[in-house]
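Shipment paperwork, digital attachment
Item: protein structure file
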Amino acid sequence: MLLWIPALQQRGSTVNFIVSDSGAHILNSWTQEDQNLQELMAALAAVGPPNPRADPECCSILHGLVAAVETLCKITEYQHEARTMLMENAERVGNRGRIICITNAKSDSHVRMLEDCVQETIHEHNKLAANSDHLMQIQKCELVLIHTYPVGEDSLVSDRLKKELSPVLTSEVHSVRAGRHLATKLNVLVQQHFDLASTTITNIPMKPTFNVCDQVSTFLRRKKKGRITEQNAVLLHQQFDSAIQEEQHANTSANYDVELLHHKDAHVDFLKSGDNHMGGNNREGTLKETVTLKWCTPRTNSVELHYCTGAYRISPVDVNSRPSSCLTNFLLNGRSVLLEQPRKSGSKVISHMLSSHGGEIFLHVLSSSRSILEDPPSISEGCGGRVTDYRITDFGEFMRENRLTPFLDPRYKIDGSLEIPLERAKDQLEKHTRYWPMIISQTTIFNMQAVVPLASLIVKEALTDEDILNCQKTIYNLVDMERKNDPLPISTVGTRGKGPKRDEQYRIMWNELETLVRAHIYNSDKHQRVLECLLACRSKPPEEEERKKRGRKREEKEDKTEKSGKDYELEKPWQESERLKGVLDREKEELAEAEVIKDSPDSPEPPNKKPLVMMDEIPPVEKTKGPMSLLSLWSNRINTANSRKHQEFIGRLNSINNKAELYQHLKEENGMESTENGKASRQ
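Attachment content:
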């Protein structure tokens, strides 16, 4: 049975492995020299398989659990250094650890027996460590029992979440099938215990290579020293056969995937940006998730790297696999690899980079968003889209009014309790934001200068009599504005036509003002008085309502008249233009006939068929209200031109109002009096 004991410290975490059969076999120590894979593999190879001739009753996991508690009480190099530097404050150095026990338990009662054993052992060794300078008491220990059972069988042990057994010891139980399922479970636990995350690098191009000669020489050297048994030799021979077959096909390249472990902070930028399509998937049906990043051929030198926001050490999950070995060797040779974040939209985003520094490989987080060194983005490019009418000026004033200042002297509330500065600041911020529209088009009262006194006073925790008077004055001013029918700053963005009617604008304004006041009526009784004044001013008398109704009817009638007038004006020019066109065509025909008759030698001089008046006797054209239309201008021009073409008829010259009386001698003979031409005559 194997025990894995990582020492949980802020830094310098170390791991100790113990194998338990008839006794406890400690494979390594807390020193940094033993914290590497080569030493651990060599120690595991030296342990060998269990002795088949040994008594099964003598093999117990209890030997390893006791040795694990003893090992946790020993001082590590980091703890010794911290105690030496602190000197008199040495008690501040903590000693916490976790025991991971991989075993096959018989039942839940067997698990409880193991927990009791660990609890008693910790209690005894803490007593010994209290009187020793070379040991440290265990302040906190986590026991993780992993029960393994064969594939195809049912587990006899129930899973259990973390449970506190004592102030020092907590325990949790996991049941998992043997084989690859155990390795996956350990991988998940490692991520939980050390705040790690998984990243899978896909599409890594490499040629599979395997140095069989080196492996054979190592095998013969170990066999000569007697470190390899017959069973291990058979397994190694099988591995060599498969390796030789793979090397025969090594001329072809393939794409591989390598899973890496690193600190979870490397993915914090994705979580903050809300990028949920970053390639996470579940592997082998477990709860372990990995982020998929695609290999991207680097096109820049290491000097021309992108802006980096973080670097974290990495470790391959399968350290002995050929893809992991090829990747680590490639990076340790001074190469850097850019990693691409796959997107559903098909765009290419370089988000990470693998590079080595000082013999260690780091995963660098590249800035894929706007750099802090650039100019800040426009406020219109925020979460709400391209909104251009934010109340930016008002928000700056809002921040100025709610600045934090140092809290020097303590203050007490009305009930005598101490006032906490942070809670007071939160309370003030909550009052100022109960009703605070962010967009100009969503508010009316905050765009009116007349409402500023009330809006600045109503957010106060308590109002004075003078404050109430100022609020009432503001309300009365609004009533006077409504009586005078003054315009309001109503936004017409996105609306067609002239916008809402004037009384509708004031109704919107009063509703919004009531919403603002109602949001603060529970601050004090005087806030309630402001609301009562507002409601009293909103309830208009009947004659006021009747006047408003008549005003609305008059506006509707004017709108209808204006609309019909516009339609008539649009139709009238077309009709007049058609009539004018017909008149001009007839005049052209008459002029053409007159020219033909005049040119004939046998025809007499035709009389003037259409006598025209002189220019000085043309009655003045009545001036029209407003600008003259194109038809009126054209008609005046035609009349003026026609009046100049012929000499005026002599009868019209002596008449009144350009009307000549015909056959006047007949009327004189009959003794009739004619007055139409302005001359009275009697026979």
